[in-house]
Structure formats: C-alpha cells, structure tokens
Amino acid sequence: MTLHNGSVRMELLHLGPGHSPGDTVVWLPDQSVLITGDLAMSGVTPFVPMGSVSASLETLDIMRAWVPRAVVPGHGPVGGPAILDATEDYLRWLRRLARDGLAGGLTYRELADSADLGSFAQLIDSERLLRHLSRAYAEERGAAPGEPLDIGALFAEMIAQHGSVPACHA
C-alpha cells in the first residue's frame, strides 16, 4: 500500500513472518528512510519466537536491497544500514548455534544454559536466547516460518530458567 502525506510517499510493505506473522515496514523511497518495526533492533536482542529465523534473514536481504540511508528500528536508536547487519549477524549466529546443538544431541534448553553469547551478551534482553533457540530448533526440524509454537510453555520454561518472569528492557 502506498500512502501520501503531502509530498512524502510512504510505502507499507508486509514482509513477515520475521518478528511475527504481521510484520509491516514503512519505506520512504525519496528520503531513503526505512522504518523496520521489530524486524530490526538497535542494541537490542532481536525477537523471533512468533516469527521466523529464516524469514527474518530473507526480510533483511529485501530491506538492504533498498539501500536505506537511515534505519528506524523497532527498539533502540535510529542509525544506518549497520542496524540491519547487526540483526543479521545475531540471527546467523543463532541458526549456527541451533544446528550445532541439534548435531550434538542437545535440547534447546540445554544449549541455552551452556551457550556463550560472546559479543551478543552486551545486547539489551540477551536472555531471549531460550525463546530463540526454540524457534531455531523448530525450523531446523522442518517447521514452517511463523508456524505457531506453544508460547505459554516457552515462557514457563524461561521463568524456570531465570527463576522469575523475564523483564523486557527494550
């Protein structure tokens, strides 16, 4: 859908499921400004349990091809295309971690308990790993992007892992 606010053209594009099945971005082509919603985050751990790791990576490729000058993420400060790169780095690491965990016979909970977040530990809400590994494991086992997971059970696992309800600081 294309909207106009005076002389400003805004293209609304559905690119989900990345963060969630309803992901929509706003592209202002004349200004080269991309408003990503929660498909990209700046300094914050991405969130994909209700969406998809693989589809998130595809949407990042689509958004990067527009060559945005400014990126307005769903959470964190406005920046440039490096926001897309940082989100991609995390998601690619997550997918590799899941593949290695499955190959090693670990459950996603065991992997989340033992994984080294490395540079991703500095991200806000880095404790999201358990949720993300559940999605990454599901996809590696053949689940379709956005296929519903039992989010209630997943949050119960997170509470057990952390000893309390996780706080969102983003």
Plain-language structure description:
The protein is built from 5 helices and 5 strands. The protein is of the alpha+beta class and 170 residues long. The protein has one domain: Metallo-beta-lactamase, Chain A (4-Layer Sandwich), CATH 3.60.15.10. A 5-stranded mixed beta sheet has the order 1-2-3-4-5. Helix 1 (53-65) runs antiparallel to helix 2 and helix 3 (108-114) crosses helix 4. It is elongated.
In short:
This protein is of the alpha+beta class and 170 residues long. It has helices at residues 53-65, 82-103, 108-114, 129-140, 151-162; strands at residues 2-5, 8-14, 24-28, 33-41, 70-75. Strands 1-2-3-4-5 form a 5-stranded mixed sheet.
Question: What distinguishing features does this structure have?
Answer:
5 helices, 170 residues, five-stranded mixed beta sheet, 39% helix
